[in-house]
Amino acid sequence: MLTSFYSMEGKVKARTMMYLDAEQLRALKDEAHTRGISLAELLRRVVQAHLEERPAVAAAPPSAFLKIVGLGASGCEEISDRHDSYVAEALRLEHAG
Fold it and tell me: Which domain holds residue 81?
């Protein structure tokens, strides 16, 4: 949950809160101390490395959405309640293969 925004080094930062196990917190504090940086800076670097290393997800082309229009009756009674999850799964499968 974002609580406030402030500027550091010319960049706007959002303040957030997270919960860690005591062992995780101790290990991260130790690593930050060893590197001579703050815990916050270590966490920013870890997050940035994760964001740079994750695989890119291509946006679905408009034609992918048109494929689901008018697919017909499924016989599934909960379709109106869960249609968003069904559409998301269909798009995920379309782009995974």
Answer: 62-96
Residues 17 and 46 in one domain: yes
Angle at 58 between CA 56 and CA 71, to 5 degrees: 145
Distance from C-alpha of 82 to C-alpha of 76, rounded to nearest angstrom:
10
Distance between CA atoms of 38 and 28, rounded to whole angstroms? Answer: 10
Residues 13 and 43: beta-carbon distance below 8 Å: no
Indicate the number of domains in the chain: 2
CATH number, domain of 11, equals: 1.10.1220
Residue 9: pLDDT over 80:
no
Q: List, for residues 60-85, the tens digit of each pLDDT value.
A: 888 887 777 766 666 777 777 887 88
